[in-house]
Amino acid sequence: MLTLNNINVYYGAIHALKGISFEVNKGEIVTLIGSNGAGKSTCLKTISGLLRPKEGTLSFKGNDLTAVSAPEIVSRGISQVPEGRRIFANMLVSENLDLGAYLRKDKAGIKEDMEKVFSLFPRLKERRRQLAGTLSGGEQQMLAMGRALMSKPELLLLDEPSMGLAPILVKQIFSIIQEINSLGTTILLVEQNARMALSIANRAYVLETGKIVLSGDSKELMESEEIRKAYLGG
Amino acid sequence: MGSAGDLILQQLINGISLGSIYALIALGYTMVYGIIQLINFAHGDVMMVGAYIGWFCTTVLKFSFLPALIVAMFLSAVLGVIIERIAYKPLRNATRLAALITAIGMSFFLEYGGMLIVTPQTRTFPSVFPQTVYTFGNVAFKYGDIVIVITTVILMLLLQFIVKYTKTGKAMRAVSYDKDAANLMGINVNNTISATFALGSALAAAAGVLIGVYFNTIDPLMGIMPGLKAFIAAVLGGIGIIPGAMLGGLAMGLIESIVSGIGYSTWRDAAAFIILIVVLLIKPNGLLGKNIREKV
Ligand SMILES: Nc1ncnc2c1ncn2[C@@H]1O[C@H](COP(=O)(O)OP(=O)(O)OP(=O)(O)O)[C@@H](O)[C@H]1O
Ligand SMILES: [Mg+2]
Questions:
Q1: Residue A50 is nearest to which of B183, B187, B296, comparing CB atoms?
Q2: Quick check: ipTM above 0.95?
Q3: pLDDT band at residue A186, thresholds of 50, 70 and 90?
Q4: Rounded CA separation B182/B177 (Å)
Q5: Which residue of A121, A134, B55, B186 pairs with A71 in a disulfide if CB–CB is 3.0 to 4.6 A?
């Protein structure tokens, strides 16, 4: 479904992604794990069109994405929940969700998806008339995910959804991710919480300083000595 | 009512008219600042161009007030978009100082370009309204006062509606809050910035036409002082905050009228600056400025 081929991304002189290739198949949950500064967010931003690769190609459902603008990528069916949520704190919860559906014109479909989001995150329904900035951290994460779902994506990119959340909330968010996946959305999940990510993913890629150093089935990776030492705390 | 009361009331009426005009101009400063953090120093000059378009429509084309207002607003909106695309967009990632200097350059360009085209001479605006003066006791309302206030109120309600309820308005708020996040929603950031310039310039043009019909004369440098004062009004209300610009504009108009009314008209401009400084000392983000912090 999504294929990255030898992607190289630079920030000025900093070579952040050094020839990354991987793929995500329809229906999967794939996780990209790695420590701080490995290049995980850079990778998602490149897929979303916020950054341009200097070299390499990206394709989605057989169409080239390399020179496609960020808004157009949304309309092709990829939606990102950015690191740190990036909700519009100055706007209402309902307005944030409306913005998620910015490119859609099917009013009835939008309404239906709004209900779906509310059934995944009942808390958002209670708070829909509230300023998004007044939500708690966990609620903001839910809003960021709900907002991304409002574009009706085929592929959802999640950048560290567990960041800054209490363990119980992390569990809840991860089970919702599984639920979203079971409803038919393919997921690419970026995480530092490798244990949680591997526990729900089908496959995983491990990123270290801009390169993929390991990949495979998540269960197998979970057993591997290298992963246990570096990412699962022994 | 005593004569002191009448005097105050009279100055309030003048102040509200003047303040409405400042508010209309201040909105453009604040909206543009809100979205690209640029103080658009050419904004007062766009107001001047709007006034000239209004003048041309009423004198040469013999339009009445409303069609002239609409044409001036529309053409100035186009001008605002062109200015942004040509002068500011290429500098979007440059330093803020570079953009600011460009804005000052654009201001000179419009002022002196304007002089070349329309000559530096002052033009008289035709009287598009009856020169009726309504008097209540010793307090006088001009027909023009009523038109200014009604026009301003309608335009502000319209703006509030656009910003609050339309797709473009929501996109504008989203882009001013977080451009990358807006991009991830599928919002075209460049088009949204253009829409902001269009709206701000249209409001400035309306102010220009109102100044023309109210004060009867226009000239190519007429944008400088009201532009500066509207900018102060925007800062006073809290730059980037739309209701702040409305409030700041009205406050500026009232301060000026009252200071003149009590016989210190030479202190009129200084008073505005002093109040600005005092307000900023107490509330550095302006009267309505506040910070909504994100919880992380
Ligand atoms: N805007 C930027 N300008 C310059 N360098 C950047 C920029 N953004 C990221 N980098 C650098 O690129 C590298 C990869 O950063 P990235 O944000 O992709 O890491 P990450 O894996 O998402 O880390 P984290 O887990 O901390 O979010 C880092 O070395 C970082 O310093
Ligand atoms: Mg990151």
A1: B183
A2: no
A3: very high
A4: 8
A5: B186
Residue A89 to residue B173, Cβ atoms within 8 A: no
Q: Which residues pair with A233 in a beta bridge?
A: none
Using CA atoms of A218, A220, A221, A223 in order, give the dihedral in degrees to the nearest 10: 130
* Separation CA B54–CA B64 (nearest Å): 10
> What number does the ligand 1 atom closest to the CA of A40 have?
21
Q: Which residue has the tokens 């490995």?
A: A38
CB A159 within 8 A of CB A190: yes
Which residue type occupies B177?
A: Y
DSSP string, B125-183: PP--S---EEEETTEEEEHHHHHHHHHHHHHHHHHHHHHHHSHHHHHHHHHHH-HHHHH
CA-nearest residue of chain A to B180? A50
| Shortest-distance ligand to the CA of residue A35 | 1
The answer to whether position B292 is within a domain reads: no
Residue B124: beta bridge partners?
B217
Residues with CB under 5 A from ligand 2 (ion): A 41, 83
Could you tell me the distance, in angstroms and rounded to a whole number, from the CA of residue A40 to the centre of ligand 1? Answer: 8
Neighbouring residues of B266: CB distance < 8 A, sequence distance ≥ 6: none
B174 contacts in A (CB within 8 Å)?
88, 91, 99
What is the per-residue pLDDT for B296? 37
The verdict on residue B288 lying in a domain is no
Tell me the pLDDT tens digit for each residue of B133-142: 888 878 888 8
Asked, for residue B273, whether it belongs to a domain, the answer is yes
Distances (CA, A) of B115 to A163, B52, B220: 59, 11, 6
Domain for residue B293, yes or no?
no
Q: How many domains does chain B have?
A: 1
Per-residue pLDDT of B211-248, as tens digits, reads: 999 889 999 999 999 999 999 999 999 998 999 999 99
pLDDT tier, B114 (very low <50, low <70, confident <90, very high otherwise): very high
The protein residue with its alpha carbon nearest to ligand 1, atom 16, reads A39
What the block records as the tokens of B294 is 């994100």
Answer whether residue B294 shows pLDDT above 50.
Answer: no
Token reading at A74: 């949304």
* Residue found by looking up tokens 């559906």 in the block: A101
Q: Which residues contact B97 (CB under 8 A, 6 or more apart)?
A: none
What's the A41 CA to ligand 2 centre distance in angstroms? 4
Q: How far apart are CA B19 and CA B235, in angstroms?
A: 15
Q: Tokens for A91?
A: 């706007």
Domain limits at B103? Answer: 2-282
Q: Chain A contacts of B181, Cβ < 8 Å?
A: 82, 86-88
Beta strands in A91-162 (DSSP E): 155-159
Contact A50 B184 (CB under 8 A): yes
- B170, B173, B186 member nearest A74 (Cβ): B186
Q: Is B293 helix (H, G, I), strand (E, B) or coil?
A: coil
Where residue B75 sits, what CATH number does that domain have?
Answer: 1.10.3470
